[in-house]
């Protein structure tokens, strides 16, 4: 809130201007009382002005109460999200993301297509952005909705890789494609009050989760 000036009386009967950084309802009320105490008896405060100030005080108090309620609701929602995030530990989730962990002979890549595609190309990069593999799934990887593709990663070093998906419809139009992360939640980390899930050695935001399944 912007800086305001309050009016208070002193022992000599004169008015003193007090500058404060914010004005709360108590400050507003003190200023009104000071105005009444120090007004000229021969020229009292206009009733219309006084009524307007009372209305301003009422509005200020209501806004203050609303702000307090919003803060409480925000804390409640934050604690609810944190509890839900912790409850996902041990469960298999699917979330928005474009990383895949190469450990062992193969890894699963998951993506969605807005419609059936005539051709799908999956490109996999290392963390430096170097292309390490290109896959062209068959019909089973070109269907509308969620698709899963097995990547033979036996000839690459273990670690985290990035992948992107592009798709073209049979008539040549571009098909919308989104990449997903799948894996078991092994832990939860809180960063500045926001929960992040540990999946496949990566931290992903709780808000990016699109589906949850019981771990098999």
Keywords:
alpha+beta; 42% strand; 216 residues; Immunoglobulin-like; disordered N terminus; 14 strands; elongated
Describe the structure.
By secondary structure, this protein is α+β, with helices and mostly antiparallel strands. The protein has two domains: 4-87, no CATH class; 92-213, Immunoglobulin-like, CATH 2.60.40. Helices cover 25% and strands 42% of the residues. The chain has two helices and 14 strands; from the N terminus they run ββααββββββββββββ. It has helices at residues 25-38, 47-87, and strands at residues 4-9, 15-20, 92-96, 99-102, 106-113, 119-125, 131-135, 145-152, 159-168, 174-175, 177-191, 194-199, 202-205, 209-213. The strands form three sheets. Strands 3, 5, 8, 11, 12, 13 and 14 form a seven-stranded antiparallel beta sheet that branches. Strands 4, 6, 7, 9 and 10 form a five-stranded antiparallel beta sheet that branches. α1 (25-38) runs antiparallel to α2 (47-87). It is elongated. Mean pLDDT is 79; it is low at 1-20.
């Amino acid at each position: 809130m912007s800086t305001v000036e309050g009016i208070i009386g002193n022992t000599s009967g004169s008015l003193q201007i007090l500058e404060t950084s914010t004005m709360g309802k108590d400050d507003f009320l003190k200023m009104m009382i000071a105005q009444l105490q120090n007004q000229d008896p021969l020229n009292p405060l206009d009733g219309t002005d006084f009524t307007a100030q009372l209305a301003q005080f009422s509005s200020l108090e209501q806004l203050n109460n609303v702000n307090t309620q919003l803060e409480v609701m925000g804390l409640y929602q934050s604690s609810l999200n944190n509890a839900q995030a912790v409850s996902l530990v041990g469960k298999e989730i699917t979330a928005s993301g474009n990383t895949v962990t190469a450990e062992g002979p193969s890894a699963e890549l998951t993506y969605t297509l807005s419609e059936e595609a005539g051709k799908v190309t999956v490109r996999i990069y290392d963390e430096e952005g170097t292309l390490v593999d290109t896959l062209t799934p068959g019909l089973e990887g070109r269907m509308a909705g969620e698709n899963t593709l097995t990547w033979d990663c036996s000839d690459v070093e273990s670690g985290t890789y990035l992948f992107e998906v592009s798709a073209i419809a049979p008539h040549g139009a571009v098909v919308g494609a989104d990449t997903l992360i799948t894996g078991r939640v092994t832990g939860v980390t809180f960063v500045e009050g926001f929960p992040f899930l540990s999946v496949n050695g990566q931290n992903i935001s709780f808000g990016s989760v699109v589906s949850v399944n019981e771990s098999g």
